[in-house]
């Protein structure tokens, strides 16, 4: 049993179904199901009864839910109070970044900054999805974010940082796999696998691709490229997604999609209503350099 399982359990109960809960938690539905199965095994009791697509708590589950909510509320309150007591250490920068660059390009950027600009700077790096990044920037948990754009965050300043190509992901034997580029019209009557509309990139694909074609079907269960690639590899359709490092382990064909190159833009983000340290200002300026931005463009 772990803290994530407690938080997952509360969200499932609040949302009343696994699909909505997985989307809200930014994890795949199979991962959420497996986590809850392990949670039930640890507890030794059944938590849910299924009613169609929705779930309801068993009597045992109701007791556990009350306990979990009280536990998490107490924990969150304690963490919030502790954070108020601790000022951010001097010369420290908190940067939240999309997972696709968190373990690859961002650490090199930090090393280069420390080597050339400020060798004593201390970085705390976070790997997050776009919406948690923006919420964290807004409430002061992070100083700088590298994420998608999302409307509704009026206090945040977005600066274009780099772009990601939108591609078609195919099995090698698919008729479109031999093409150098795929036109939108060639996606008509195809079964499309792409992101959930609950995330910014899902909205981008929906508005710039899905609404422009007549697909046979659209599967929007996935929250990342791994989920899309897994469904494509199992023969369930063709993927429409960003070309990221997450796709490297998959033996699939990537074909560029004939849409504007700046369809998918990643931004640097900061809170313009907050006063910033000299370190924040210098790192934003460093990220704005062309030599730095180019390192974030994925080259196959």
TrEMBL record:
It comes from Loigolactobacillus rennini DSM 20253. It holds the Pfam family HTH_1. GO terms for cellular component: protein-DNA complex. This is Transcriptional regulator (Transcriptional regulator, lysr family). Residues 1-58 form the HTH lysR-type domain. It comes from the Bacteria. The keyword Transcription regulation applies. SUPFAM superfamilies: Periplasmic binding protein-like II, Winged helix' DNA-binding domain. InterPro entries: LysR_HTH_N, LysR_subst-bd, WH-like_DNA-bd_sf, WH_DNA-bd_sf. Keywords: DNA-binding, Transcription, Transcription regulation. The lineage of its organism: Bacteria, Bacillati, Bacillota, Bacilli, Lactobacillales. One of its GO terms (molecular function) is DNA binding. Belongs to the LysR transcriptional regulatory family. The keyword Heme does not apply.
């Amino acid at each position: 049993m772990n803290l994530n399982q407690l938080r997952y359990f509360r969200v499932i109960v609040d949302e009343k179904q696994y699909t909505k809960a997985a989307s809200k938690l930014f994890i795949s539905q199979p991962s959420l199901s497996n986590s809850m199965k392990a949670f039930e095994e640890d507890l030794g009791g059944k938590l849910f009864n299924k009613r169609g697509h929705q779930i309801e708590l068993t009597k045992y589950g109701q007791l556990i839910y009350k306990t979990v909510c009280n536990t998490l509320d107490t924990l969150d309150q304690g963490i919030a109070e502790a954070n108020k007591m601790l000022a951010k250490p001097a010369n420290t920068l908190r940067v939240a970044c999309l997972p696709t660059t968190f373990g690859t390009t961002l650490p090199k950027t930090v090393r280069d900054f420390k080597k050339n600009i400020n060798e004593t700077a201390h970085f705390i790096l976070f790997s997050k999805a776009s919406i948690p990044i923006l919420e964290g920037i807004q409430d002061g948990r992070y100083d700088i974010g590298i994420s998608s754009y999302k409307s509704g965050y009026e206090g945040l300043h977005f600066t274009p940082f780099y772009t990601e190509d939108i591609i078609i992901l195919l099995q090698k034997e698919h008729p479109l796999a031999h093409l150098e580029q795929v036109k939108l019209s060639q996606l008509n009557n195809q079964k499309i696998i792409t992101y959930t509309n609950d995330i910014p990139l899902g909205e981008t694909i929906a508005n710039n691709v899905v609404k422009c074609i007549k697909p046979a079907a659209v599967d929007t269960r996935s929250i990342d490229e791994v989920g899309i690639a897994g469904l494509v590899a199992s023969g369930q359709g063709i993927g429409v997604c960003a070309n990221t490092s997450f796709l490297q382990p998959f033996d699939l064909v990537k074909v560029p999609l004939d849409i504007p190159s700046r369809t998918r833009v990643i931004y640097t983000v900061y809170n313009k209503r907050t006063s910033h340290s000299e370190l924040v200002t210098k790192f934003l300026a460093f990220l704005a350099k062309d030599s730095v931005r180019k390192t974030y463009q994925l080259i196959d």
